[in-house]
Amino acid sequence: MMGPTTLVVMAAILAGDTPAYAACTAPSAATASVSDVVEIRGRVRALDVAPAPNGTAIVLDVDAAVALNHFTLDNPSRLVVDLGGASLSIRSNYDGRARGAVRNVRLSQFCADTARLVIDLDAAHKYTVERGGNSLRISIEAEARTFGRWTTERPGADIAEAATRRLESPGAVPAIAPVEPEPARNDASDERLTPRTPASPSAINATRRQQQKPRITVSYDGTNIRDVIAAFATFSGRTIVVGKDVEGTVTADITEKPWDVALQAILQSQGLAATEDASGIISVDSYRNLASNQALEPLVTQIVDINYAKAAVLRNTVQALLARDCTGLTTMQTGRELGMPMNQAGGGSQSNQQPMGGQGCVVRGSVASDSATNKLIITEVPSRLPEIVARIQQLDVRTPQVAIKAKIIFVNRTGIQDIGLAYDLGTGTKQFFQQLAPRTDPNTLTNIDTDGDGVPDARGGGTPYQGPARIALGGNAVAGIANANNAIKPNALNLIYSTALGRYQLTAFLNALQTSSLADVQSEPSITILNNRSAEIF
């Protein structure tokens, strides 16, 4: 074990006393040579921040072959530890809590061959750096305090083995394994950088929540753009090819941002763009060069099934998404020679389309619809075809349907209340109307034996009188009748009263009626209509 090295961090450090350290280098995808070889001598596998008897201890699990350099900065107070020839196997997502004198810890791949640890302090403190085997311990002397330990997750597999390899041939870019393994995806387009089409902030936020890449924290001050891209390739484990015209320097301070978002922001600030092919290789070049390459791409044809919408309706929309080559007269002449549709008035391949800008643009692709199978036949460059298919899938969605039902009821209510009186007054067989109480015909009477002695002693039996009413126009007989032919039927109450008054017979009927009826007629019309459409119910 090497003895501890003790330094006093003072605010009066002279600017000229900044310790020297090896220049940060990175392989260039276009100009790499044998003299440019970057050697990775070790890896950083873990980082711990824990309390110590004399303050705070920060322990790194790093290979012993890694070179060490440390220095301090003021305003604010910081301790910087550079690990030369080291690559990161972990990501430091420090939680931002103060632990003793430590306010924040940032670990990042500063360059392709240098990992940097920056420790933010609350003030200037003494510190010691001790190395032993594969352990590097940094002790910050301060008042002892109690706080919780923080540590990074150790990688479960040797995921950065490729980072220790050297560039063996000029112009070759080493394939570096990703820092953190991600689940395999069936669709390679999930990993692509697609800055072509702007989206709404809500859609961008939702997409980032679903496919957020590992976060990176890094600072650049006048760093060559090629070194920056190489560092992002090492961090992400992706293959990035840089165009021959990519030049410039980068000054940026990125804190805890997804690596793809950070890379896209850096490229946009340099007037560059990134595209990804079907195999997953990312190409970085200027917009003009990318447009020129796209203009020379061969066309491919793909048939897309339309499930819910009508292919003829989507055809015009897809036509507006086709790539247009507006790079110059040479491309225009090539388009004429190949028989491509030209848009001299502002874009578009059909006379009924609206102008889309770009005088003299060539619409390379085409789209046709088949109404029999409800399919679209799209001819386009391979780099644009996946995006167009994705837009079609967003448009070809099931339209919600609304079912509307109504119940119509017609009610008819009737009520009857009635009372009536019917009577018949007559004199036996001489005068009667034969309507309410039938009279016995005297001609049908027979002799009957009432006492059982065998000798008839009375007249009885007989049948009701058959015939019209008997009315005597003279004499002292009286007859009366009322409502005999207008009886209430059906009735709720019938009262009969019959009495003999001397020679007269009175028969009376009292009828009472009360009825109530309730009738309803129901109708249930219904209709089903697409959402956002008007409908009428008959």
In a few lines, what is going on in this structure?
The chain is mainly beta and 538 residues long. It has helices at 201-210, 225-236, 259-269, 287-295, 311-321, 329-337, 385-395; strands spanning 5-8, 42-52, 55-62, 67-73, 78-84, 86-88, 102-111, 114-121, 126-132, 135-141, 150-151, 215-224, 240-242, 249-258, 272-276, 282-286, 300-305, 324-325, 342-343, 361-363, 366-370, 375-380, 401-405, 408-426, 446-448, 458-460, 480-482, 493-501, 504-523, 526-530. The chain folds into four domains: 5-15 and 23-164, Immunoglobulin-like (Sandwich); 188-293, 3-Layer(bab) Sandwich (Phage tail protein beta-alpha-beta fold); 299-398, Ribosomal Protein S8, Chain: A, domain 1; 410-520, no CATH class.
